[in-house]
Amino acid sequence: MTTAERGFHPFAVLHVLRKTILLYLIPLVQVLFERNWEALWTALVQDAVLFTVLALVSAAALHASRWQVDAQGNLTIRWRLGVRLDRSLRAGQLAALTIERPLLYRLANASKVVLYPAGQKRSLTLMLTRKDAQWLADRMMPVEDAVAHTPHGGEKLAFAVLGANSLSTLALLVLALRQSEPYAPDAQTAAFAHLNRLAAWAARWLPMGTAWLLVLGGVLFCASLARSAAQAAHYTVWRTDTQLGSRGGLVRRYELRIRLRHLSFADVRRSPATWALHYSPVYVTASRCQPEVPLLVWREDGPFLQELLPGFALPPDEPVNAHNRSKLFFLPAGIPCGLFLLLTAVSRYTLPGLTVPLLVLTGIAGVFLLGAWAGYRREGVWQKDGRILLRIQHGFHLHNICVFCPTPALTALQSPWAVAVRRTNLTLTFPGGIRRKVRSVRCEDISFMDL
């Protein structure tokens, strides 16, 4: 039975208007550069007229646009404003879908639905009401007889901590750029008002700039930890005979559904935090769908991952043969580490107050250098039970990848030096254009690929 045509949520218009904000700023450019304040009113009027025109056009497009699902579960989207632009998506072509409901969307009864067609590089985004979004997901990818798992206790705590890792790394980078200036005439004037006492307490043992870096680093890490904990709230992962999915979130509601036959690979990410917590986050990828939220956190002695992903395997937990391996592994981390080390030595004689903050940055770069050393010893390619297994080092994280896609495209690239030592860079391209590269692997190790 074909359903009647339905409209989009008004947030679809706001999504379009947000991309046109640059047009509103163009009339103000001349005013700002020439300081012609008398023309400010004219520029504001022009902005108001332009916004009104674009709002009317967007409202007309919203009124003329419709979507519909037929009896077979195939989606048809019709855009009609001056020209007719239709797009269809068969249910069998859908590799994954996500439903996002941030707090603002929930207040407006809106949902953002992102559809990922199998093998295509472009996704399809729809702004629908909450009821329509759930109905569309259940119609395109119905969930039946699901086996669900909800993290509890230490597993839930590990989920929150590991989800905050990338955010805290970004926070520390921002701190290094903004707060490591102890030679300022008055450091207190550059401080955040609510952190003065903490910084003063830390400054008893550390220089002011370093104290601010550590204090604000802890505050931002706690903020990222709170955000990750909110994502882990009410979290559930489930599996059926044909699908894999998860849902949860406290402030930002999130739901993921993936068809197992379109699953590209599963990625178990190891880092120093995972060794301390004895849990590892597991991410899945299907076509262009690469969720930022892990599917689950997994303890190796737990069987649940095998229930979710039958046939999943990890690369061997042993070093690879690194004889004649390229030293380019150390270049991305070695250059900044050497630069910070040189600046630290110079600061001892020119700006002693910068020495400790530069030592902190040198230590951070040194950790990345240790990560490069881990990749040099452990990065490689294997085959087990007909599946391709990869281990790739990126920064702090060691990615252990199990490939489920039966036919990824393979590219081997060799330099003249690599030809002489029989090594190559291997790139796997998955449906949707997602790529993963393993550096400087032995040609004997990939002989099973018939390259």
List the helices and strands and how they pair.
Blueprint: H1 11-18, H2 21-34, H3 40-64, E1 66-69, E2 75-81, E3 83-89, E4 94-101, H4 103-107, E5 110-117, E6 124-129, H5 130-140, E7 147-149, H6 153-163, H7 165-178, H8 196-202, H9 208-232, E8 236-239, E9 243-248, E10 253-259, E11 263-270, H10 272-277, E12 280-286, E13 296-298, H11 304-308, H12 331-347, H13 355-378, E14 380-384, E15 387-394, E16 397-403, E17 409-413, H14 416-420, E18 423-429, E19 435-442
Antiparallel strand pairs: 1-2, 2-3, 4-5, 4-10, 5-6, 7-8, 8-9, 9-10, 11-12, 11-16, 12-13, 14-15, 15-16, 17-18, 18-19
Helix pairs in contact: 1-3, 2-3, 6-9, 7-9, 8-9, 12-13
Folded structure, characterized:
Among the domains are: 11-140, PH-domain like; 144-312, no CATH class. The chain is α+β, with helices and mostly antiparallel strands and 451 residues long. 39% of the residues lie in helices and 26% in strands. It has a seven-stranded antiparallel β-sheet with strand order 6-5-4-10-9-8-7. It is globular and about 65 Å long. A hairpin with a 5-residue loop joins strand 1 (66-69) and strand 2 (75-81). Helix 1 (11-18) packs across helix 3 (40-64), helix 7 (165-178) runs antiparallel to helix 9 and helix 12 packs antiparallel against helix 13.
Compute the average pLDDT: 79
Ends apart, CA distance between termini: 49 Å
Share of helical residues: 25-40%
Alpha-beta content class? alpha+beta
What quaternary form is this?
single chain
Indicate the low-confidence ranges by residue numbers.
Answer: 166-195, 201-205
Shape: globular
- Strand tally, please? 19
Radius of gyration: 26 Å
Question: What is the count of helical runs?
Answer: 14
How much of the residues is beta strand, in percent? 25-35%
Largest sheet: 7 strands, antiparallel
Spatial strand order of the main sheet? 6-5-4-10-9-8-7
